């Protein structure tokens, strides 16, 4: 039941215009490498607000364990959504489409080999892999890259430390 609640909160939160407060954006950017900062600035307003909320929660949960790579992971875990270039309602369609095909990699792969909206839906549903690639190219810490790739996977498939993964997941789901 937590997933539908999370998605509903993300949907309604995405309807609010504007990015994070200036103080939150400045706080976030202090944790990012220059190339990560460039990616952060390209992210949509709702994704940046969400990233700040996740990072602030992770900082509270982990205290000194909230290292720069961990907070960068919290801030940038959804950076792969950039490639899809979908707005709120397109993201709703993509999420529902992914549920219908049970995120079947073959179907989603077929979608990415098309054009237009269908391709963008396919890209959106691969945002974890695409985000990890973007972060690796940006020179991000391996933990930051891994979390972007793994944040939708079950805990037994994580390569990040369990305590970190559980804090990141709890902060993202809240």
Q: How would you describe what is shown here?
A:
The chain is built from eleven helices and no strands. The chain has helices at residues 2-14, 22-30, 34-42, 45-62, 68-76, 88-100, 105-112, 116-124, 127-137, 142-150, 162-173. It is globular. The chain is mainly α and 174 residues long.
Would you summarize the structure shown here?
With 174 residues, the chain is mainly α. Helix content is 69%, strand content 0%.
- Tell me the overall shape: globular
Q: What is the typical, i.e. mean, pLDDT?
A: 92
Radius of gyration based on Cα positions: 15 Å
| H and E string | HHHHHHHHHHH
Strand segment count = 0
Strand content: under 5%
Protein structure class: mainly alpha
Please give the share of residues in helix.
55-70%
Major sheet attributes:
none
Q: How many helices? A: 11
Q: Can you tell me the residue ranges where pLDDT is under 50 for at least 5 consecutive residues?
A: none
Instruction: State the distance separating the first and last CA atoms.
Output: 12 Å
Q: What is the secondary structure topology, with strand pairs?
A:
Blueprint (H helix, E strand, L loop, with lengths): L1 H13 L7 H9 L3 H9 L2 H18 L5 H9 L11 H13 L4 H8 L3 H9 L2 H11 L4 H9 L11 H12 L1
Helix pairs in contact: 4-5, 4-11, 5-10, 6-8, 7-8, 9-10
């Amino acid at each position: 039941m937590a997933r539908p609640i999370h998605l509903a909160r993300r949907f309604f939160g995405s309807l609010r215009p504007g990015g994070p407060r200036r103080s939150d954006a400045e706080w976030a950017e202090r944790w990012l490498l220059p190339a990560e900062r460039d990616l952060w600035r390209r992210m949509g307003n709702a994704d940046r607000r969400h990233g700040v909320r996740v990072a602030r929660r992770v900082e509270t949960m982990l205290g000194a364990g909230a290292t720069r790579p961990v907070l960068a992971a919290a801030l940038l875990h959804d950076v792969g959504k950039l490639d899809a270039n979908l707005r709120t309602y397109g993201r709703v369609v993509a999420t529902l489409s992914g549920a219908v095909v049970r995120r079947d990699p073959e179907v989603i792969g077929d979608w990415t080999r098309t054009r237009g909206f269908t391709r963008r839906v396919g890209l959106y549903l691969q945002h974890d892999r695409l985000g990890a690639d973007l972060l690796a190219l940006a020179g991000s810490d391996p933990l930051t890259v891994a979390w972007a790739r793994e944040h939708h996977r079950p805990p037994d498939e994580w390569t990040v430390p369990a305590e970190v993964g559980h804090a990141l997941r709890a902060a993202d789901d809240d």
